[in-house]
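User: My collaborator and I are trying to settle a disagreement about how two of our proteins should look. Neither of us wants to argue from intuition anymore, so we agreed to look at predicted structures for both before our next call. Could you fold the first one, then the second, and keep them clearly separated?

Assistant: That sounds like a sensible way to settle it. I'll keep them separate. The first protein:
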Amino acid sequence: MLECVVNISEGRDLRVIEAVSGAAGDDLLDVHTDPHHHRSVLTLVGEDAPRAVARAALDHLDLRGHDGVHPRIGVVDVVPFVPLGPATMADAVAARDAFGAWAAAELDLPSFAYGPERSLPDVRRHAFGALAPDHGPAGPHPSAGAVAIGARPLLVAYNVWLAEPDLERARAVAKAIRRPGLRTLGLAVGDRVQVSMNLVDPEHLGPGEATDAVAAEVAIAGCELVGLVPRSVLEATDPDRWGALDLAEDRTIEARLARRERRRG
């Protein structure tokens, strides 16, 4: 089984978000929406749902009028495939490459691959410059931009809010704690400031450790889990901290997969 965590560049119009996410049907596990990032994170299962969501996103969204604090290259900004259970990274790479070929043929959408070859930050830095699309046209789609398609292990997207809205301090903290396994950005989100993180090795550096790293540098106001977390990461965290860390059993991939199976009968 493959998980796919599609990031779309819409976080404000709930009717549009519902229309795009609804295209996934029963393969939709979770939707996380942020109006300041102007972004929604859709956790899906399989290969059909990401294609349905991508098509719906191009029907409803236009990057030319988009603004938001999160970096983006397209209306369907990131499409990472993640192996679950017996699936392998080779399965994820195959799904990634098939999606890229499909997006080029069906949507005329250029795509950039990341995973074993290069990182997502590399794609963001070099797309349409030093880096040409792996599939599709050489230039951006006029309304949809491009898509970064990945094959990666499980990661956890996670934000820690600073007690004081000091953006320069957030950026300094992000730089100070950045390391292998922990990607960080300092972002202003409305009238608040956060250290936005990807925990790329959450089995060894999970939400608790990431929060503690920020708290060692600056006073914090709270935490936010984006999307879902593997149950193994939850179980490695002190249950007494779950509430403060925005964790819960219902926020695990396994719990949502079980819910999906109950719906399917």
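The second protein, kept apart from the first:
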Amino acid sequence: MELFYRTKGEGEPLLMLHGLFGSADNLGGLVRALESEFRMVMVDHRNHGRSPHATTNSYPEMAEDIFDVMDREGIDRAHVFGHSMGGKVAMQMAQLGPDRIGRLVVGDISPVSYDRHHDRILEGMQAVADAAPQDRAGAEEILSPFVEEPDVLSFLLTNWRRGDGGDWRWRLNLDAIRGDYNAIISGIEGEGVDTPTLFLRGGLSDYVLADHRNTILKLFPNATVRTVEGTGHWLHAEKPDLVARLISRFLHNEL
């Protein structure tokens, strides 16, 4: 699985891993803030962005995808930032290859299983795929009744694009995401690793809860949790400069 990725900047390597339905482009604010300090490697996960499609989305598979990117770039060891699904990929990487991870920053996700709270969104995206409107406005008209938050709607619609053949379609692999969704919401399996880890949680988000503390510390005993007040799940987009400063200070062992 040769994922699509881009590199920017110089310094210690820092892998940037996006969340479900996204692409590396979603982390652009952080990349711009950090590229003067680190060699940024921005990756599109399998079934997302410009990367190839596959039928499965398990975290061990996605972690190995990223290790392959590291090998292609000649990177033995790197820091990793992952948001949401990308945070779970990053945590799985630390479980499978702790010697290849320097420091780990996890954006608003825990290593636990979650409920199926994307089912309504997936239903709407399938409705768009079935109707196949030939512009983004038509896709928005179909999808909007299924998505309550305007920002989430706009984010999802960035994936509705004209394909190489001229027809509009989802750029991401909707069939694989729907078919293997249980793998995406599953928890991370493993033992405790000493990787220095920073969990950044949105103050208005319910993705990282006090109930998750024991699971976090079991898998990552060298973990710290910091709250970014006034942000929800998309903390990196809502306060990119603050989040970038926290990432930078942690990776430089100043936090």
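Some points you might bring to the call about the second protein. The domain at 5-112+186-251 is CATH 3.40.50.1820 (Rossmann fold). DSSP finds eleven helices and nine strands in the chain.
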